[in-house]
Write a structure and sequence with these properties.
By secondary structure, the protein is mainly beta. It has a domain of 112 residues: Immunoglobulin-like (Sandwich). It has 1 helix and 12 strands; from the N terminus they run H-E-E-E-E-E-E-E-E-E-E-E-E. The protein is elongated. The relative contact order is 0.16.
């Protein structure tokens, strides 16, 4: 019983007496350069980030600034690409029009150790003056994760296509008189 009372004290005393091993300061190497500092094993890796780009004619892919304060304006396009800095698990990516209808598209994904490249190819270019929303969320369940197992918040990103809003075509006029 006495040993059980003094167990924590003995453990603390042994840690104090043995101490931590001396750490070697970073110094010049044989080549004369200073050694890079190695992050602690317990340090948190950088958060998973996303970049969004769109194809602008034959000029290639142009970045879209992903800000929360304003809705960026892009040129009409039929190709949108979302990249992540880490591989993703249990995710789905969709493009919605301003009426919150999913856009018909031919999607492709390239997965690698550096992340994913998700390409949305639309049959027709996005309409001028209209707003669109790109959404990345969980395929099943409440959350999707990165390759480190960290849960990611749903991504909802709005943008608008430059130009005047196209007016809908008026419905054709039908004869109000019925023939009998």
């Amino acid at each position: 019983m006495r040993l059980a009372r003094f167990g924590p004290i003995v453990l603390c005393a042994s840690l104090i007496l043995t101490g931590c091993p001396d750490k070697q300061p970073a110094g010049p190497l044989d080549s004369g350069t200073v050694a890079d500092t190695v992050p602690d094993a317990g340090s948190e890796p950088a958060a998973t980030s996303f970049t969004l780009r769109y194809q602008l004619g034959d000029a290639g892919l142009e970045p879209i600034a992903m800000t929360v304060d304003e809705r960026p304006t892009i040129e009409p396009t039929s190709v949108i690409e979302l990249r992540s800095s880490r591989p993703l698990r249990n995710y789905r990516i969709r493009l919605f029009d301003e009426a919150d209808r999913a856009m018909i598209s031919d999607d492709s994904v390239e997965e690698s150790a550096e992340g994913i490249v998700y390409r949305i190819t639309l049959p027709n270019p996005l309409k001028t003056g209209h707003r669109y929303t790109l959404v990345a969320d969980a395929q099943t369940g409440a959350a999707f994760t990165d390759s480190l197992g960290r849960e990611l918040e749903d991504l909802r990103f709005e943008f608008q296509v430059a130009g005047e809003k196209e007016k809908p075509t008026p419905p054709s006029k039908k004869d109000s008189k019925k023939r009998r």
